[in-house]
Design a protein that fits this description.
Blueprint: H1 2-20, H2 25-33, H3 38-66, H4 72-121, H5 126-136, H6 142-156, H7 161-172, H8 175-190, H9 195-203
Helix pairs in contact: 1-3, 2-4, 3-4, 4-5, 4-8, 4-9, 5-6, 6-7, 7-8, 8-9
């Protein structure tokens, strides 16, 4: 079936990815890009293995048809170049998507901080503030709202607040958000005043 074929191709893509990426960059970039859905990951891993297989033969055929007088050695060189590009293109695309989304998250951080200050000053706990942001703030914080929905799920499953926030900061790698989450982690562990530390994180 088509689904079975896609799963097989994707599994080969994962194998290729593990061989090419011992540092786990792709897994981090997939999270930064927001590509968490199984189908999205399936398509990306399928591209990883199918493009290097399909693109070079296509380039060779087109080269021989468009310019039949081209020497075989030159056509072969075109094929090698096409293979290299096809191997690297999915990662280039993923990096670009992840970088673009990280910039969108960066732009949401100031509003995120001001909303947190208001919610904390209204007497909400950290978890209640996150729940309010997810429930009411998805329209104005589309990226961070989705991320904190996942944070809430982890907390509901028994996750430690400080560790969950640290994991989010390490995954997204958005400087202003990392500073903000660091303040929230300290508040969760030691308590203390809210407004000034959060606004100081915004000013850094």
């Amino acid at each position: 079936s088509t689904a079975g074929w896609m799963l097989g191709v994707a599994e080969r893509g994962r194998t290729l990815e593990r061989w090419m990426d011992s540092e786990g960059e792709a897994a981090r970039l997939l999270l930064q890009a927001g590509w968490r859905a199984p189908n999205t990951r399936l398509i990306w891993y399928a591209l990883q293995v199918s493009l290097p297989v399909l693109v070079p033969p296509l380039v060779l055929v087109l080269s021989s048809v468009v310019a039949p007088e081209t020497k075989p050695a030159v056509i072969f060189l075109y094929g090698v170049m096409a293979f290299i590009v096809a191997m690297l293109a999915p990662r280039w695309l993923l990096r670009r998507v992840a970088e673009t989304r990280r910039h969108r998250i960066q732009r949401e951080v100031p509003l995120f901080i001001h909303l947190l200050v208001l919610l904390f000053e209204a007497g909400l706990s950290t978890r209640q503030a996150f729940a309010s942001l997810v429930r009411e703030g998805r329209g104005v914080l589309p990226e961070l709202g989705g991320e904190f929905e996942l944070v809430l799920r982890q907390l509901d499953a028994g996750g430690d607040t400080a560790e969950t926030l640290r994991g989010l900061a390490e995954t997204l790698q958005v400087a202003d958000l990392t500073s903000t989450l660091s303040v929230l982690r300290q508040m969760d562990r030691y308590g203390g005043e809210v407004r000034e530390p959060l606004l100081d994180a915004l000013a850094v």
